[in-house]
Protein: Insulinase family protein
Organism: Massilia agri
Amino acid sequence: MKTFSLLKPFILLSLFMLASLPSADTPAQTPLPTVAFEKTTLSNGLQLILVEDRRLPIVAVNIWYHVGPANEAPGLRGFAHLFEHMMFSATRHIPRGLADQLLEGAGATDSNGSTDYDRTNYYDTVPSNQLELALWVHADRMGYLLDVLDQKALTNQQDVVRNERRQTVEGEPYGVVEEALAHAMFPKDHPYYSPIIGSHADIQAAKLEDVRQFFARYYGPNNASIVIAGDIDKARTRALVERYFGGLRRSEPVARPIVATPPITSERRVVVHDRVELPRIYMGWLTPKAYQPGDIELAVAAEILGGGKSSRLYKKLVYERQIAQEIDAAQNSYGITSTFVIDVIARNGVDVRTLEAAIDAELAELREHGPSQREVERARNSLETALLSSIEKLGGDGLADQLNHYNQYTGDPGYLGKDIEQLRRVSPQDVQRVVRAYLARSSRAVVTGLPGSPVLNDPPRPRAPRASKAAGKAVQGINTPEAWRAKAPKPGPAPGFTLPQGETFRLANGLTVLHHHNPALPLVSAQLLIKSGNAANPALLPGLAGFTAQMLEEGTATRSAPQIADEIAQLGAFLDAGSGVDASSVSLLALRANFAPALDILADVVLHPAFPTAEVERQRASRVNDLIQQRDDPEAVAAVAAAGAFWGSRHPKGYGQLGTEPAIRSVTREDLVNFWRRHYVPSNAALVVSGDVKLAELKALVESRFGAWKTAEAPDSEPGGPEGSRARLVVVDEPGAGQTALRVIGPGVARTTPDFAALQVMNGALGGMFSSRLNNNLRETKGYTYGIYSGFRFDRTPGPFLIDSTVERAHTGASVREIFREVEGMREAPLPAAELTAARDALLLSLPGQFETNADVGASLAELFVYGLPLDYYKGLPAQLRAVTAGQVQDVARKYLDPQQMKVIAVGDRKRILPQMQPLGLGTAEVRDSDGQLPRQTP
């Protein structure tokens, strides 16, 4: 499920006619864009929106049905989302599972669906020669789902959705607290009262006849719009849409829901308990609906209050008073009404009354005096850059989805220019006015989440209704069956594409620079990489690399931490630092016009960090509280427990990025400075830049900012192999948990392995794709999980192989049994030809779609540097994938997938899951704590 916030930007300059409309208070602005689209309506009412963009040989297909929880009948909450799942079942002409197999095998990316309060969408990004395949699938779902819909499909998806609820609401820290906010803001009969997913009772209450009626009422072509954006010929595309959709019958007209939302006239307060350690406060107000007066002004107010380190709440609550761990504020814009939400997590030991009083003080200050002009400028600049950065993507939540978004809410798919123009016009007086009008104390709901046992209503699944005698037989559908639809269309000629190679140069001090010129957008993405990450941590100080990276933004010789945050926001740029297993990095996103001054700041934080003592103590406290939050997340606990069990407590990879609480508390300023001095040297670094900057200009920029970086020898130590536990079963106890977070971990290989291509194909078939063996078994067939995935983590030295899932508690043992059965199946027999082709082509044909954005290209170039791969590596990768055989897949499965060397990590209710594990022959369980470590022995 996804929700939309106001102002999702999609401004592909190759698609737009630009008109310069400068604003009075921002002298240097990007011209307002006008989207070059064509909109027509078929005779059956289907709206068709086309956008031609030939940057890459890919096409995004995005369908919106104008139905969501806003349309649900009382007693059927969560139904729109359940039906979204049903749309991926069989249709008259496409057997169940075949559409996923064909689309993945064709190289589809961003292939999924989502439900929001006001709409449901389905989307795929495919190679341009596979457009007809995507249209064939979507049309058959629209026209012929009802013909073969049966109880078996409904029961399976009810199981899947209930597992989704357990994982994303009940098992997610603060999930039930956030759910309570909607309950506090809306009456029970309001469409927005329940979460989009509904309750267990809602999900289980759905009957097959309800599903059929919902489809017949809302899934007609006249209640849908389709956007096709990318490498298309418009005339041919219109003809294809007419062929596949034009003959589908209309449904009865659907009126947009008109719902009165009662105002909140006096403050409403609720306390909710959850399996968390840190208190959390949600404050919510009812605000104007999407694109109505006040909506955009409140989006700016949210940025001023909670938009990162330059915001008021961060500066006061997190930085100065250190009473909050995280803050956020958002204007969530919808069709019936919108909500403005402030969300703050307390530091450990802070009383929620103190936290609430501090939030109220900042709100009162903003109401009374309004924001400064510079605050508004910072907020507008940050929002606009965020808008611009999102436009690079065609599919998923990118361009095609935004055009559908504008089309539904404004009737104009090209509303983008007006949207940005309104943003630029927001003034300090506008912000003060909407804060006074809508964010009063008396008109809000306050939900406080406190540590404790949540109250959950998760009844067991009732016995499924008996299938009728007609089950499995085709029933009367809406549209006349057409035999030609039973055959998948053949792809067109394969489009040519050369994966980006980039250019490189090196400064005299040893700094490597990797560059890719992409003038499509006035944006530049940069990443300063240090080839030392968590694997370089000292044995007694796990987490040191991450702590060091985190300190870079906290002050330099000439800039304080607040100055860094304010300067970056004023430029409309984004700066972030962090560490992974093999590298640390500082990343930057900036408008092309502001790239040079933003690069000044990046260079300053890397070359001149001051490590002020006061800031070290602030970040120490922050990391301890991050660790506390990590303990609340079963999936995060499973990850760190797996690392500890596999690598061992003496190995730097045996911990998460945060390390341990004793290590965090014992790190000194000298430790941080020494790590920086040893590892942050030019010969151990690379600057990766992708975007609208040419090579000659970049050389001058880099030389002036990094040329004086003092030369030093790069560290060359690499950690040894794993020294983990001998136990094959590791358990972390979470009494009462309704699900079990599972990790299966075993030995893997390094990124430079010659078996890379064969391993990727093998893993795709096993658990790397949605249509993989593991996901088809545990999710689609048995309904044990919302999803399961597998993969190799290809480190610089051999990394692990991982299988990751969260399963229903009652099926923990059965899930582990099925996981090992599928692993053994990969070893025992070669992949059938069709499965091999699908897994191989899924990797091969999706490659162009993985280089859509500057960040995508930058990440690929960064991989070359970190793992010592040649600059032309991606040029040869397609041939390597194409050459993989079934014999090679079986060989690597036998070589690297040894079940006897795999460990099972289970985070859940120990008393309920251990009896299920005993018959599996995994031996005695090793019990670890919520930090993933063995409990300390007391003397």
Q: What stands out?
A: The mean pLDDT is 92. The first strand starts at residue 16 and ends at 19. Residues 558 and 608 are 8 Å apart (CA to CA).
